[in-house]
Design goal:
The protein is an alpha+beta fold and 209 residues long. The chain has four helices and seven strands; from the N terminus they run αβββαββαββα.
Length: 209
């Protein structure tokens, strides 16, 4: 058996070493690609979870408002509404001046205004009568309240996080409003009753003749 020349041994070793280096680099690149893929997958999942959490938080966040209820104009009501999908608790009200009607009744002295509300469910509402618009506006004007009455509402969600919102009651917005009364079922019933009474009256007169 003939000995292998030294130069051939060196060449063989270089090839083996190169193959090992290539294999190591390939494995390293594969690991890096896997790590990058895992990282981006993790980031996407985290972003999705954060968006879902923010959505749940937004849905669970209450929003309590105080506003004029103008659906029955010229009668004006004051409404407390939770216009959200989250329940509110420990609700307190603060008024820049008392809400008062022209006959001297102080609406803001009602117990739920004065002492607050323990709880208001999602889309919950409490409405109370304020005054007739034609009587209320001159009364407010005499008290220099043309800019309305400011209401601060403080409340918490079910987890105890506090919130605060400010609103303005300004009946002067509805001054000189051209009212259009929509006819509902009650108006239809009254019309039928009037028609029936009218027919009965004509029939009775006809019998007398």
């Amino acid at each position: 058996m003939y000995p292998v020349p030294a130069s051939d041994n060196v060449g063989f070793v270089d090839i083996v070493t190169l193959a090992q280096i290539v294999t190591s680099v390939t494995n390293l690149l594969f690991v890096i690609v896997l790590a990058i893929g895992y990282y981006f997958t993790w980031r996407v999942s985290q972003t999705t979870l954060e968006e879902m959490r923010a959505q749940r938080t937004a849905m669970g966040r209450p929003l309590v408002i105080v506003e004029e209820d103008y659906e029955s104009l010229p009668e004006l009501d004051v409404a407390i509404r939770n216009v959200s999908e989250g329940a509110a608790r420990d609700i307190e009200f603060e008024f820049s001046v008392p809400i008062e009607s022209s006959n001297g009744f102080v609406v803001s002295d009602l117990p739920y205004f004065k002492y607050g509300l323990d709880f208001l469910p999602p889309n919950g509402e409490i409405t109370c009568y304020w005054d007739e618009l034609d009587s209320l506006l001159p009364f407010l004007e005499s008290k220099d309240l043309r800019n309305g009455i400011h209401v601060t509402v403080r409340y918490k969600d079910l987890t105890g996080d506090p919130y605060q919102s400010q609103w303005r009651l300004n009946p002067f917005l509805y001054k000189d409003t051209r009212l259009v009364r929509r006819k509902g079922m009650g108006d239809l019933v009254k019309a039928v009753e009037r028609l029936a009474l009218s027919k009965d009256g004509r029939a009775e007169r006809h019998e007398r003749q």
